[in-house]
Design a protein that fits this description.
alpha+beta, Arc Repressor Mutant, subunit A, three-stranded antiparallel beta sheet, 3 strands, about 55% helix, elongated, Tscrpt_reg_PadR_N, WH_DNA-bd_sf, DNA-binding PadR family transcriptional regulator
Length: about 110
């Protein structure tokens, strides 16, 4: 199952454990080195799709300073899909490096 980059990053953000929406936004920004910045609408749309696909689940809710926080975590299936996609992307990157005759980490 090939994932969109945003979905992949959301799953990767949740790989260390449950996070609430703002935590996912910050983790995705860090994982992408600032290249991907999710807005709330984009994030919750992605989480709804991922939950519908059985890849993430709501694992808790709380109210903090009058604001509702919902915590999300990977399901077992979500962890499997994330691992499979990671292997697929690593193979693709290795193929690209061979074709371009690049050495990993050298940029050329």
């Amino acid at each position: 199952m090939a994932l969109r980059e945003q979905s992949y990053l959301v799953l990767l953000a949740l790989s260390d454990g449950p996070l609430h929406g703002y935590g996912v936004i910050k983790a995705v920004q860090e994982l992408s080195e600032g290249r991907v910045r999710l807005g709330a609408g984009t994030l919750y749309g992605a989480l709804d799709r991922l939950a519908g696909d059985g890849l993430v689940a709501v694992v808790g809710e709380e109210v903090v300073d009058g604001r509702h926080r919902r915590y999300y975590d990977l399901t077992g299936h979500g962890r499997e899909v994330l691992a499979e996609e990671t292997v697929r992307l690593a193979r693709l990157a290795a193929t690209a490096q061979r074709r371009l005759r690049l050495q990993p980490g050298t940029g050329g």
